[in-house]
Amino acid sequence: MSEVVRNYYENNAEHEWERLNQPYSKIEFLSTLRLFEKYLSPAGHICDVGSGPGRYSIELLKQGYQVTLFEISQQELDIASERIQELGLQAEAYICDNATNMHVLDDEAYEAVLVMGPLYHIHDDEARSKIIRETSRILKKDGVAIFAYINSWGALKAGVSEFSEEFRDLNHLYNYLGELKLDENQGFTECYFTTPVKALDEVTLGGFEIVTYAGTESFLAGMRPEVTRLYNEDRIVYDHLLQVASESCELPQYRDATEHLHIVARKR
Question: Global pTM?
């Protein structure tokens, strides 16, 4: 990842902590926790690559896992460390480095590895593939990884309500049917969007067997304004939708058209 990406997260560290508290993003958060519950081993060492301010690391520490946070932004790691200490928890390690430098991690050291952020930002195919191969290297035999991608098909759906003005350019709209490599002037920072088909192939070629994949927004994908309205006006309906969406995030009729794609894979 580039200095552009590093600087974005350095300057938006607190926003990243708050993002998963937002009514719409809470769907992503709960869906991800359900995947942890279903597919991670009940104990062991986990490396959270692209940990951000530690939202998921904290949940895993609460459950007794030993967690290493690996993150490009020192500001993000500082927030994570502060929050973890406030809760009386202790991480195994904090490493500030680029996900393309995972060679600093030991072979077969972890029961699980989370890569839920770095692949959003890497335009170069070989660099992404290297991260996936390195994830396999640091996993123990039969270890599980969760890889997150931004799904261009889901971003297209969300764009109708969130950034439809971009679709005045017809060619740009068509671009969402495949890969997008956006610079900091086109996306929130340098971004990589891809399709579920290509993402699954990329993970498989990196030495993994696909266990499942999920679209974390489920059937609520692309409905941010309506979900936010329900959060403010009818919390019972909102809570019910949140529960069912997170429980159904792996269903094939939903998972290919959500903004965030999570691939659960086992080391071959």
Answer: 0.96
Q: Which two tokens stand for residue 180?
A: 């997008």
One pLDDT digit (tens) per residue for the chain, 268 residues? 689 999 999 999 898 999 999 999 999 999 999 999 999 999 999 999 999 999 999 999 999 999 999 999 999 999 999 999 999 999 999 999 999 999 999 999 999 999 999 999 999 999 999 999 999 999 999 999 999 999 999 999 999 999 999 999 999 999 999 999 999 888 888 999 999 999 999 999 999 999 999 999 999 999 999 999 999 999 999 999 999 999 999 999 999 999 999 999 999 8
77 sits in which H/E element: helix 74-86
Which CATH superfamily does the domain covering 3-267 fall into? Vaccinia Virus protein VP39 (3.40.50.150)
Q: Long-range contacts made by residues 84-87, C-beta under 8 angstroms, separation at least 24?
A: 84/54, 84/57, 84/58, 87/58, 87/61, 87/62
Q: Long-range CB contacts (< 8 A, 24+ apart) of 158-163?
A: 158/221, 158/222, 158/224, 158/259, 160/222, 161/222, 161/223, 161/224, 161/225, 162/224
Helix pair angle (224-233, 235-247), 10° resolution: 130
Residue boundaries of the structural domains of the chain: 3-267
